[in-house]
Design goal:
- It is built from six helices and 36 strands.
- With about 475 residues, it is mainly β.
- It has a single domain, classed as 7 Propeller (Methylamine Dehydrogenase, Chain H).
- β34 and β35 form a beta hairpin.
- The longest helix has 9 residues.
- The structure holds fe (ii) ion.
């Protein structure tokens, strides 16, 4: 198989500003707003190759869409990690798979003082009309949505007394729901809500020992928050002991003894109303969740084990025969009272980046999910739409093209759940050029595309901020 995916793991240092793109086909006249996504830009620091996909320095991609035209800007986030990498060619803080440069003592000092990386490569979030680039760190980087310039930073942990907040959050009627994590002899995840520019308000806490589960995202229903406790996570004792020798988060990622569970919290009272045991799983992303009488339906991409994270080393992903972690799109039925959890397959993987018509259907009964699906190699090769009433699947693909996360943008006054378009930044691995795709969400057929002047590394998560939609959260 022709290796068209390796181009998705190569550095792009070129920053372009406000470039008009040619549009092939016709964008909907109503599509008016900014599509901003985040992801890797640079895979080395000086001569040092970074080891894991999540280590790469963050680069924002922005598309201003108006009256059928597209203007493109891309820019690295000016984090402290980026500044030290560029100015001194050094890894400032330990990244998930790459240890920090410096002496053993300095690494230990950083570990003991809770000094975290600030490279915000997971996604973007808008709080109180301000855009932030975010990752699993204490800070969000304030970003000008037009120029993508870094204009400041904000401590996202105020009010929750934690080391970091997760990169994924929910935004509902202007209120952010998030998870913060505090690491130590005890590790605590705090569910919080935040209104506008105020401090976060803790709602509930989950306390673990020094080997907590890794949690990347959570799901919400009308009344509940569903938090996954995977039987895998960083053994902080091992991490701390090995830090002077360069042990990383990835090296200390181990199976846990505690059983895998889903914790269900009442959003109004903070009370934990259920802790549902199930088979081992690893979950990055949820499509959606909703209540069905005494059952909570949870749709997500689930992996069988921790290779979901340890398998994403850049050396593996660049191989001609990568051993890609296989996540399936599945549905869990969690009983709130008695009974066993049930799990059904919705779409066989590898699939990732599940999305929905978020603004209207998050936390509600819904019918359509959209995902990036992989047929070969290390990157997705298709966009899939799953009709959950079947379930049946419709796919769109083009040889050599690797589509990123599909973002649903609803038409104004949509008549159906899928009345809108899907936006996705795709990489053509044959021509080494990236392209903004616009698919009709109902038929999953191409409406328009706008080729970029250059190649972008394959990205992670984005949001669309427009006149017809207040934006999508990233869960
Ligand atoms: Fe994510």
């Amino acid at each position: 198989m022709e290796n068209t995916w390796r181009a998705g793991f190569r550095t792009q240092c070129e920053e372009l500003h406000d470039v008009a793109l040619d549009v092939e086909g016709t964008l909907p006249g109503w599509l008016d707003g900014e599509f901003i996504s985040n992801g890797p830009g640079q895979f080395e620091v000086g001569e040092t190759p970074l080891k894991h996909w999540f280590d790469a320095l963050a680069m924002l991609r922005g598309f201003r869409i108006d009256d059928g035209s597209v203007r493109y800007t891309n820019r690295f986030v000016r984090s402290d990690d980026f500044r030290v990498a560029r100015e001194r060619q050094r890894v400032r803080r330990s990244l998930p798979g790459t240890p920090a440069d410096g002496s053993a003592f300095k690494r230990l000092y950083h570990a003991l003082s809770g000094a975290f990386q600030d490279n915000p490569s997971i996604g973007v979030i808008r709080l109180d009309d301000t855009l932030y680039a975010v990752t699993e760190s204490p800070v969000g980087f304030e970003t000008d949505p037009e120029t993508l310039e870094t204009t400041g930073q904000r401590d996202l942990t105020t009010g929750v007394n934690s080391d970091i907040t997760l990169g994924h959050a929910h935004v509902e009627d202007g209120v952010q729901w998030g998870l913060a994590a505090d690491f130590g002899n005890e590790c605590t995840y705090t569910l919080f809500r935040r209104t506008g520019d105020r401090d976060a308000t803790p709602i509930s806490r989950l306390v673990f020992d020094d080997h907590p589960p890794y949690i990347h995202a959570f799901a919400m229903t009308e009344h509940y928050a569903v938090i996954p406790e995977a039987p895998y996570g960083v053994d902080f004792r091992r991490l701390l002991l090995g830090t002077p020798r360069g042990t990383t988060f990835l090296d200390a990622f181990e199976p846990r003894e505690a059983p895998p569970r889903f914790h269900v919290f009442d959003r109004a009272t903070g009370e934990r109303v259920a802790a549902v045991r199930t088979e081992p799983f690893f979950i990055y992303h949820f499509a959606n969740a909703y209540e069905d009488d005494d059952t909570i339906i949870v749709d997500c991409v689930a992996y069988p084990d921790l290779e979901a994270i340890t398998g994403l080393t850049l050396s593996n992903l660049r191989r001609d025969d990568p051993n890609l972690p296989r996540g399936n799109f599945v549905r869990y039925r969690l009983p709130l009272r008695d009974g066993d959890v049930r799990r059904t397959l919705l779409l066989r993987g590898p699939v990732e980046f599940p999305t929905i018509h978020y603004g209207r259907y998050n936390a509600c009964r819904y019918r359509y999910a959209y995902l990036a699906a992989a047929d070969y190699g290390a990157l997705p090769t298709a966009i899939a739409k799953v009709d959950l009433d079947g379930p049946t699947t419709v796919r769109w693909s083009e040889p050599g093209l690797h589509p990123g996360e599909p973002i649903f943008v609803p038409a104004p006054l949509p008549t159906t759940e899928d009345d809108g378009v899907l936006l996705s930044v795709a990489l053509n691995g044959r021509t080494e050029q990236s392209v903004l795709l616009c698919l009709d969400a109902e038929t999953v057929t191409e409406r328009a595309r706008a080729p970029l002047p250059h190649r972008l590394p394959y990205g992670f998560h984005g949001q669309f901020y427009g006149a017809t939609d207040l934006g999508r959260s990233m869960a």
